[in-house]
Amino acid sequence: MNLLKEFDLHDPAKSGQELHSFAAELFPICRSITGEGIRQTLAMIQSRIPLKVSDVPSGTSVFDWTVPKEWNIRDAYIKAPNGKRVVDFRDCNLHVVNYSRPIHETMLLSELKPHLFTIPKNPEWIPYRTSYYKEDWGFCLSHNQLLALEDGKYEVCIDSTLENGHLTYGECSLPGRSTDEILISCHACHPSLANDNLSGLTVATHLSRFLARRDLRYSYRFLFIPGTIGAITWLARNQEQAGRIRHGLVLTCIGDSGKFHYKKSRHGVAEMDRASAHVLKHNSQDPEILEFSPYGYDERQYCSPGFNLAVGCLMRSVWGTFPEYHTSADNLEFIHPQELEQSLRVCVAIIDVLENNRRYRNLRPYCEPQLGRRNLYRPTGGDDIGAEINARLWVLNLSDGKHSLLDIAERSGLPFSMINDAADVLFQGGLLELGSD
Amino acid sequence: MNLLKEFDLHDPAKSGQELHSFAAELFPICRSITGEGIRQTLAMIQSRIPLKVSDVPSGTSVFDWTVPKEWNIRDAYIKAPNGKRVVDFRDCNLHVVNYSRPIHETMLLSELKPHLFTIPKNPEWIPYRTSYYKEDWGFCLSHNQLLALEDGKYEVCIDSTLENGHLTYGECSLPGRSTDEILISCHACHPSLANDNLSGLTVATHLSRFLARRDLRYSYRFLFIPGTIGAITWLARNQEQAGRIRHGLVLTCIGDSGKFHYKKSRHGVAEMDRASAHVLKHNSQDPEILEFSPYGYDERQYCSPGFNLAVGCLMRSVWGTFPEYHTSADNLEFIHPQELEQSLRVCVAIIDVLENNRRYRNLRPYCEPQLGRRNLYRPTGGDDIGAEINARLWVLNLSDGKHSLLDIAERSGLPFSMINDAADVLFQGGLLELGSD
Amino acid sequence: MNLLKEFDLHDPAKSGQELHSFAAELFPICRSITGEGIRQTLAMIQSRIPLKVSDVPSGTSVFDWTVPKEWNIRDAYIKAPNGKRVVDFRDCNLHVVNYSRPIHETMLLSELKPHLFTIPKNPEWIPYRTSYYKEDWGFCLSHNQLLALEDGKYEVCIDSTLENGHLTYGECSLPGRSTDEILISCHACHPSLANDNLSGLTVATHLSRFLARRDLRYSYRFLFIPGTIGAITWLARNQEQAGRIRHGLVLTCIGDSGKFHYKKSRHGVAEMDRASAHVLKHNSQDPEILEFSPYGYDERQYCSPGFNLAVGCLMRSVWGTFPEYHTSADNLEFIHPQELEQSLRVCVAIIDVLENNRRYRNLRPYCEPQLGRRNLYRPTGGDDIGAEINARLWVLNLSDGKHSLLDIAERSGLPFSMINDAADVLFQGGLLELGSD
C-alpha cells in the first residue's frame, strides 16, 4: 500500500490547521509526569483515536526506579506586601516549578529569592523548571517581574498535592499483517509548551488516525507517556512486547520552522536510521542527521543496552539549541500549521519506506529484459531515458534477492517512492517476484 | 611479462596516426545493428586481426529478445518541389533515421515535418537517430536545412530493405596460460560517428594486435558487436563461456580530448575497478571514477544480475554530456591521433596490472633483509632512499601472501609499474616466492 | 591505576629541566652503532634505571644480517698546509663520518675533497653522515670551512679502530600483572644530535622511572639500542619474547617545538594506534596521524611481516622534514625542557589508556539506572547535564561487554580520562562489572 500517495490526496492546508487547533486546545492544561493534567490530555487524544489508558500506582517498582507520587495543583501565587498577586499561576502554569510541594507562608523577599527562577538574557520570558526527584518548591517568572519586586513581606502559596496516586499513560495499537511492531513515542508531560511537545502529541495522534483501518504490513504502537519515567514504566511492564519492536521513532519539537534533524538509534545503521535519512534527504531542505548519543528524549530508554531497540528521534530544531526551548516563548505562535503538516508527511513517508521496503528477484536476470515491447521504455533511440525508466533499470539490475528497495534507492540516488513505483510496474509486468525477507 | 614497457618501445606518433587513419577508413560506412555496413566493418577489422565472424539468423530467440531483421540501404533523399535533392543520404548517412523502413512517396511539407529531426541549438549539425524496435522512418538534417524548406510537395525516398537475414558480430580470441578471460567489448553499430565508436573499434583492434603472440597469463576475448542486441546475442549463445570472464572493459568514446572517465562494474571493488582507477590516477590528468549505474553501453548486459561480470567502461568524454554526442560533429576532427594512442596505452597499462597482479611471500619475513649487501640499497647512510628503494621496502613488508601487488601499490601510493619492478628485482634476488593465488 | 593523574602531581617545570639536563650530559659523547660511546651512554642510563646491558660479539648472525665490527675513535683532524687543525674531531664529533676506517695520510686538497661533506644551503652547519655497511672514511664540515680551504697538501688523520668486538644494547623490564608486554624502543646510536635521539633516550628513561614500582597491568620492556642492527639483533635473540609484545612505541625526535606526529603500526587499527591518536587529539595542538610506511625508525623491524607487532612511532617534527635534521643544528638549543616534559606526559597518557582500557558490563541494562538517587546526576530538571554526567550515560549505554572504554571515548568524543573516571564512579556505585577481556 502506497501510504505517501494516499496521504497526498489530503488537503495539506486543512490538515495543518487541524493539527494547530488541536495543539491550541491542549495548550492551557498544566501537565506534569503524573496527575490530572496528563489524564485530561490523554482524554482529549482519546476523543480522536482509540487509546488504552493505564494507571500505575505510585510506589510500583519499574526497573531501577519507583513510580512517583501523583502531583496536582489548584492554584499558586506570590502576593506582594500590598496584597496584589505579582506572580499568578492562573496567568501561566509555567510560573510554578513543576512538581512543587505545597507551601503557604509569608517570607521576606530575601528568603523568597532562592526559589525564584528567571532568564536574564530574555527578560520577558518565563522559564520552565521541574523538581521531580527532589521535593522542593519554586516559582518561575520573567526577569522584568523579578526586577520590579520591592523589599518586604510576601505571601507565597502553592496549593498543590503530592500524594500516592497513579502514573498515567496512553497507548494506541493498530494491528498489521505482522506482529512485528513500529513504535511511535512522544512525551506528554510538559505543561504549556507548544513545540516541546504538543507538536509531537498532535502529529502522533493524526498519524495514528491516518494509519487506522489501512492494510498495514507492520503493527503499530503509539505511546503518549510522561518523559523518562513513563518510558521506563511502559518498558518494565511490557518487556516481552518490546521485543517485537522492529523500528521506532520518538517525536519531539516538530512544529517550529527549523530544518529537520534525525538522531540515529544506537545501532546507527538500522533500517529506521536509513529510511529516515533517505526520506529527509528527498523530502526536506538541508536536513541534518545526528549520531546517537545517550542523552536526549525517551530514545535514551529504548536504546539502553538491554533493549537496544532501533528507535531514532525526529526533530526540527533540536532541544536545548533554540532560545525559546523550555520557556514561555515556546507558545502557539512558535509552531505553525504548515510545519506540523510537513512533519506529519515526513512521518508518513518514513513509514511508507518501512512498509514497502521489500526484496525482489528479477525473473529475467540474464541481460536486460526487453522493456520496449512491454511499453516500459522510451519509443525512440537517442532520447534521454528519464528518471522513471532509470528507476526500472536500477530495480532490475539490483533485484537479486539481496538488495532491498531502500538499498536500491540509496545506491541509485533516486527517491524511494520512484523505486517503489518501478518495482510495482515491473512486478505487474511479470518481471519480478518477491524475495524471501 | 611487462606489457607497458614493451608498449613504450613503440613510436607513439606513428601508432596514433595509424589509429586515426583506420578510423578514417571506417568512417564513411553506414553501419547499423544488422546489415552490410557492420559486415563490411568487421571485414576491415579482420584484415588486421584474426576475427571470427558469426551470423545469427533474424528471429532467433536470445534471452528475452529476438534477433531483428536485417537492414540495408542503397539510397535515400528528399526532393524539393523543384526536383532538387535537398536532403541526400549520399552526402551523409546520418540523414536517414537508422533502421528506417523503405518509403517512396510524395507529400506536403506539413506531412513530412513530423518525420524530420534537427538540433535547433546547433543549427549546422545533423543529429543521429535510430528506430530499431519500432518500424518507422525519418530524416535527420541540420536545422538550417529545415528552415530553408519551402511549402510544396516533396518526393521522399528511402531505398532500404528490412528483411529476414542475420545479425553479425566479430570476435577475436587470444589464448593465454589460463582459460580465465579478459573481455574487451565495443559496439560497432554506429554509422559515421567517430568518437562513438570508431575510437573504441580502432583502439580495441590495435590492442588485440599488440597482445597477439605474447606470453599472456589470461586469455583474451575481443567483441565487436552491435550495441545492446549484440551483447545480448553473444551472451545468450555463450553463457558458459561468459563464466570464464574474470575482468572486462567496454571501450567507447575514447578518441576525443576529454579527460578519462572509468565507470565501475556492478561490483564496484572488482580488481578491474581498482586496476583502472589506479592506472588512470598514475597515467592521466585528473581522471574521474564513476559509480556503476545500469544505464550506459554494453556493461548493462555484462553486469545484469544473472551474469554480474566484473566489466567496467572506459571513456574519455562521457556519452550524452558533450554537445557533439550523436551528431554529425562527432566526426574525424573530433578525435585525434594522440588521444587515441594515449587511450590505447591506458588499456595496455590496465592489462599490465591484471597480468602482473600477483601475491608474493617474503622469504626473509623476520626484520628487513639486508638489501645493502645485495646492492639493492643506497650506499651512504643519511641520503634519501628514493622511490625505487621505497618500493622494495613496501613489497618486502606487505608480501605476506595476502597482499597483491595492486594492494601494495594502492597502500604505498606508488605506481604499480614501480611496485612490479621492485617485486621482480626482489624475486630475482631470492627474497620472494610466488604465493598461491 | 590512573597513571596520568599520578603523573600530574609532578612539578612539570622541574621534570622538564631534569630531562634537558640529562640530555646535556649525554650530548658530548661520540656514539655509534657499536663501541665505547654507546656503552658509556648505557652506563649513564643505568645510573637512573635498572638496565640489563647485553654484548653481542661481532660476526654473530642475526636473521639476514651479521653483527658488525666494533668502532672506536680517539681523535681525527685535517691539518692545513700551515700545520693548523682546520677540521677537528675534538670540536665536534660530527666532523668524522661515523664508522670511518682509520687513515693517516697526506694528500692534495683535490684528493681530499671527495671525502668532504657539507650543506651548501646552511653554510654554518656540519652534516651528520655514516658509512656503516661499506668501509670508507670521510669528514663533515661547514660549507664555510670548506670554502676557506686553500690548495696544498693536507694531513688527514682518523685515529679510529674497526675490529671484532661487540654490539651493545640495554633493556629494562618492569613486571606487571600480565606477561603481555608494552615495548618502548629508542635508538641510542647517534652522536651529538639532541632531538635525534637524546630526546627519545631521556624521555624513555624518565618514563621507565615513573612506571617503576607501580601496580601495572602490563609488563614493560624498554630498549635502548643501536638503530636497525640493534633492533634486528634484539629480535633475533628474543624471538619468542617478542610474541608477548601487545603494544609498542618507538620514541624519536620528541624534544623540539614541532607539533606531534604519530605514525601508525602496520595494522593501522591496533589499540596502540587508536590510543595514540586519541591521546594526541585530546592532549596536544593539531597533531597529525601518519599512515604506516616501511621506511623510518625501528618500527621497520618490529612491523616486518614475520613479527607484525603493533608498534607505532611517536615524533614531534618528522625526521627528514626539518632542516636541522642530521646536522650540528640539532643541538641542545633545538630541544626544550617544556617539550620534553610534554612528550613524556603524552607517553604516560597513552600508557594510561592501554592500562585502563577495559570492557565493562552494565548491571542495570534495562533503561537508565536512576543516577539521581545515587547523587550521580544534576539536582534540577532543565539544566545542562555537563560532560561528567554525559560520560556516565555513555559508559552505561555502551557497556555491553563488547565496547571498550576507548571505543566509548572515541564514539562519545570525550577524553578517555573522563570516560575512565565515569567508569570508576559507576563501578564503585555497583552499576558495572568487569567484562571478560
Q: Which tags fit this structure?
A:
four-stranded antiparallel beta sheet; alpha/beta; eight-stranded mixed beta sheet; homotrimer
Q: What's the short story on this structure?
A:
Chain A has 437 residues and is an alpha/beta fold.
Overall form of chain A: elongated
Contiguous uncertain segments of 5+ residues of chain A: none
Helix content range of the residues of chain A, please?
25-40%
Secondary structure tally: strands of chain A:
19
Quaternary class: homotrimer
> What is the average of the pLDDT values of chain A?
96
Q: Biggest sheet of chain A: strands, sense, closure?
A: 8 strands, mixed
Strand order of the largest sheet of chain A: 1-10-12-11-13-16-14-15
Please indicate the percent range of residues of chain A in DSSP E strands (runs of 2 or more).
Answer: 15-25%
- Note the total helix count of chain A: 14
SS-based class of chain A? alpha/beta
Q: Return Rg of chain A in Å.
A: 25 Å
